[in-house]
Amino acid sequence: MICLGIEGTAEKTGIGIVDSDGNILATCGDQLYPEVGGIHPRDAAEFHAQHIVPLIQDALSESNLTLEDIDLVSFAKGPGLGPALRTIATAARSLSQNLNVPLIGVNHCIGHVEIGKLTTGATDPVTLYTSGGNTQIISYEAGRYRIIGETLDIAIGNCLDQFSRDIGLGHPGGPIIEKHALNTDDVVELPYVVKGMDLSFSGILTSAISKYKKGVPLDVICNSFQQTCFAMLCEVTERAISYTNKDEVLLCGGVAANKTLRLMLKEMCDEHYVDFYMPPMKYCGDNGSMIAQVGLLAYDEKLTGIKNSYINPKYRTDQVPVTWIDHDFKHNIDLPDNMINKGAEADIIEAMWDNNESIIKERVKKNYRIDQLDEKLRSERIKQEAKLINDAKKAQVKTPYIYHINLVDKKLVLEKIKSPQLNDIIDDETININEILHNIGADIAKLHENNIIHGDLTLANILVDKTTPVFIDFGLGKYSNLEEDYGTDLLVLKKSFKTIVPQKAEELFNIILEGYNNKKINKKIDEIEKRGRYL
Ligand SMILES: C[C@@H](O)[C@H](NC(=O)OP(=O)(O)OC[C@H]1O[C@@H](n2cnc3c(N)ncnc32)[C@H](O)[C@@H]1O)C(=O)O
Ligand SMILES: Nc1ncnc2c1ncn2[C@@H]1O[C@H](COP(=O)(O)OP(=O)(O)OP(=O)(O)O)[C@@H](O)[C@H]1O
Ligand SMILES: [Fe+2]
Fold first, then answer.
1. Which parts of the sequence bind ATP (predicted)?
2. Is 480 assigned to a binding site?
3. Which residues does residue 209 pair with via DSSP β-bridges, in sequence order?
4. Interval 50-72: pLDDT, tens
5. Which residues contact 45 (CB under 8 A, 6 or more apart)?
6. Atom 12 in ligand 1: which residue has the minimum CA distance?
7. Which is nearest to 22 in space by CA: 283, 395, 198, 374?
8. Is residue 460 in contact with ligand 2, taking CB distance under 6 Å?
9. Distance between CA atoms of residues 271 and 343, nearest Å
10. Contact call for residues 79 and 314 (beta carbons, < 8 A)
11. What is the DSSP string of 494-528?
């Protein structure tokens, strides 16, 4: 089967032709460059209207095909700009009707993932999708591409673009900032915001603009911008590796064009003994072949036709049932012999300490980030972790004993907790999981009553000793008395349930909330969730 895909979610018009043996037969595109400001949705729509037909002709001549050879037409239903989506949907409808072939609308974000897999050979990667409109960490679990981390506000590409426009450098900002950044090694400090598996870029944007206006040289701001934002992206990706145990990382989306980001991610992957993949440049940004490829994969008569061809500007990656993957994957990361776990932040080694079985948690240097930022993050986090572990214990919440702390080598020696992770027992029908979840909720409430924010409440960071939770890994924790922070803390846990046990996530998380026993927090969580970019 041969599919012609039409892309046009934002300012790029793309036509791609792919066959069901995985051959990309043509990829043709054109991009609107606004003279001033950003992209106006109506201008994007008009640009598509003018370019779709000539680009289809280009794609046919590139592939040596005629329209009669096309068996299927696909187009991006969303996410994207409404007027732009409506234009390409209209074009796709008329083409499919004229050719009398089926029509299928697909999810653009999944297009980025699938073209990445097709062009690199990655099979089941953790995907870092970085573009102008999206920043997501995506992993396939149980029939869907799950968003296991994402930006809480603006996308990385949008952040670079807005900065560039604001200081008069033009659009798109990514390549311009990259060019300036390469002129220097100097950096200034910008806010580094990672919350569990999520990120936030709006604070960096405001701070970078303000520092530039106060006289920090442009090259230095651009370099700092890249070093800070990209280190955050690497960190959430490495958290996702350690969380999913996957052994492949795929980078995609327009920002993947950035050489510094690619080098940093490659370095991070090497440090974690996992394989790094990225598609050839022309398949990183928006293109028609990614839409054609998903058209072929998702093709099912029930999904075709005009009646299914409505657009959805807020279409989420995780809304799509992934019917074309029908098996689970096995992963194998080969760790050195002495290491029992390679966490996102630290190497975990078992050792004896004063005759006690213990765990050495060493925050190793991360070569992907610059020395200044690396030293700061590791020092702050080890001190903060030790303090929070002790304060949680004072609040009657079980945590490991700290036997020793070495601030030079960034090592914590901790009591070894010989209990399973919540991950490992969540599906065990022989235990009373409700009681455990209730206790976890009650303990999180105790932490919050004492102004302790764990910062990374995932199912892997809660061990379970019979029915008593033991909390580990306070490395992203902090002190706060803001309801916002309590809500975000719980939301990290909710997302973790959604990743590990998607079908039961709501039900199980509600038991946590019952244990937490504070009605006000439910409203706060809803409010934070609704602020999410697509809800
Ligand atoms: C919904 C859809 O329309 C949207 N598409 C999109 O954002 O276009 P894409 O081609 O994937 O990415 C464009 C972004 O990629 C950034 N970019 C391009 N080259 C770059 C570079 N060398 N360094 C950093 N960013 C770069 C641009 O600044 C811009 O923000 C998306 O995928 O979110
Ligand atoms: N005190 C402990 N007792 C038993 N096991 C532990 C202890 N501390 C850590 N571990 C094990 O090591 C793993 C990683 O530890 P931790 O979460 O503290 O490090 P991290 O680098 O932040 O890792 P992650 O990215 O997985 O959160 C834990 O998931 C757990 O299996
Ligand atoms: Fe895109």
1. 340-348, 361
2. no
3. none
4. 999 999 999 999 999 999 999 99
5. 81, 83, 84, 86, 87
6. 254
7. 283
8. yes
9. 11
10. yes
11. HHHHHHHSGGGHHHHHHHHHHHH--HHHHHHHHHH
Residue 363: closest CA among 376, 351, 372: 376
- What string of H, E and C letters represents the secondary structure of 213-276? HCCCCHHHHHHHHHHHHHHHHHHHHHHHHHHHCCCEEEEECHHHHCHHHHHHHHHHHHHCCCEE
Contact 161 CB / ligand 1 (< 6 Å)? yes
Domains of the chain: 2-116+284-316 (3.30.420.40), 126-245 (3.30.420.40), 339-415 (3.30.200.20), 422-529 (1.10.510.10)
**Residue 78 one-letter amino acid:** G
Nearest-Å Rg of the Cα atoms of the chain is 24
Q: Is it the case that residue 328 has pLDDT exceeding 80? A: no
Q: Dig out the tokens for 398 from the structure.
A: 């079980």
Q: Which of the four pLDDT bands, split at 50, 70 and 90, describes residue 303?
A: confident
Strands 135-141 and 126-130: antiparallel
- Segment among 319-333, 381-395, 495-509 with least mean pLDDT: 319-333
> Tell me: the pLDDT tens digits for 134-181?
999 999 988 999 999 999 899 999 999 999 999 999 888 999 999 999
Q: Is residue 371 flagged as an active site residue?
A: no
Which residue among 130, 251, 255, 287 is best mutated to probe the pocket of ligand 1, counting the most ligand atoms within 8 A of its Cβ?
A: 255
